[in-house]
Write a structure and sequence with these properties.
Elements (H helix, E strand, L loop, with lengths): L2 H12 L6 H15 L7 H33 L6 H8 L9 H10 L5 E4 L7 E4 L1
Antiparallel strand pairs: 1-2
Length: about 130
C-alpha cells in the first residue's frame, strides 16, 4: 500500500463523519502534494548550485581568515606549536575557534608566510617567515 492509498482510505473512512471535515481537508492537501511530480535538477543546474556553494564557502572562509590572520601574526613571536599560538591568541579569536582551527589556518591560508618545523615525536612548530 502506498502513502496515497493509505491517505485515500483514511479520507474515505473519515468522510462519513462530519466532525472530521478539517482532518479530511488536510489529508486531501497532502494527497495533492504527493500527486505533484518531483523536479530533478539538470546536470547544468547541479553544477551551477555546486559552484555557488563553493563561492559562498570561499567568501566566508576569506572573511574569517581576514579576521583571524592578523591576530595570529601578532602573537607568533618565536617557534610555537598551534596550541601555544591558540592559547596566546584565544581572546582575539572568534568564540568557536579551537587549536585545530588555528593549525588549519596556519597550514592552508597562511602557508606562504609561515615556516613549519617538524620534529619527530613532538608537535610541529610554526613561526613567521
Amino acid at each position: 500500500m502506498t502513502k496515497k492509498d493509505a491517505l485515500r482510505t483514511a479520507i474515505a473512512q473519515l468522510s462519513t463523519d462530519n466532525s472530521f471535515d478539517d482532518v479530511v481537508d488536510t489529508l486531501l492537501k497532502i494527497v495533492a502534494q504527493l500527486d505533484k511530480p518531483r523536479t530533478e535538477l539538470t546536470p547544468e543546474q547541479k553544477t551551477a548550485r555546486n559552484e555557488a556553494r563553493k563561492a559562498h564557502t570561499a567568501s566566508v572562509r576569506a572573511s574569517m581568515v581576514a579576521t583571524v590572520a592578523p591576530v595570529l601574526r601578532a602573537v607568533m613571536t618565536t617557534d610555537m606549536t598551534a596550541k601555544e599560538i591558540f592559547e596566546a591568541a584565544k581572546y582575539g579569536l572568534p568564540a568557536d575557534f579551537t587549536a585545530n582551527k588555528v593549525q588549519n589556518v596556519l597550514l592552508r591560508e597562511m602557508a606562504s608566510e609561515v615556516v613549519k618545523t617538524e620534529t619527530k615525536g613532538k608537535a610541529n612548530t610554526y613561526r613567521l617567515a
